[in-house]
Amino acid sequence: MLAAQRREFLLDRLHREGRIVAKEVATELGLAKDSIRKDLRELAAEGLLHRVYGGALPVSPATADYPTRRTIATEAKQAVGRTAAALIQPGATVIVDGGSTALALVAALPRDLSATIVTHSPTIAAALAEHPTVDVIMLGGRLFKHSVVATGAALVESASRIRADIFFVGVTGVHHDEGLTTGDLDEAAVKRALADRASEVVVLASREKIGAASAYGVLEFDEIASIVTDADADHPVVRGLRERGVAVVHAAAASAADDRAAAAR
Predict the structure, then answer these.
(1) Does the pLDDT value for residue 120 go beyond 90?
(2) CB 126, CB 98: distance < 8 Å
């Protein structure tokens, strides 16, 4: 089989099954594992997949630049945002991560909600500027332009003084074997620092992130309370998460009544 044919075979396998196991593919094609590993390295270098131990997983579309991410899976993010917003109790202090799913969360907050929201995202803070009863606390630092959030030592220092009820954290990949991941090392460290300041951590994961992986681990499954996702309950990764004891909260699409209520807010 020619190299181009192997590449096509591997990408098709990844699309159909959501994972490539190098040993299985090598046996199936009658090739050495090193040949498959070489193909996977080249495909990863082109950004077409993410290599993991023993094979590869899909690259998360959530690693794209921020303007692009805001156009991806918008209905899914709205469903996750609405479900997550319903978890906030009046009077709570909540840390909200940056990102387009977090933006959907704050858009879904009831206009009469009285709460304090802490964020290191200027986009999230600006979206809450006209909310009448939500106090907004911004954490500053060096702006990471890719995700439009603050990072760095100054951010971690200011976060150390916060005591929150919930931290809503965004990730770019969720996989029952590879864990919760994101695409930047410093951003992953900031997410962990913010998680340390909250009693509960809730992961926001619209369906395009389920089964994908990025380079840097964020948190272990035993460090979170739940994952909010609109992915189907019978998705193999969702089943794998539940088998590991992870609480998965299903985010349903909006009904016509929900749409009318949102329009009235």
Answers:
(1) yes
(2) no
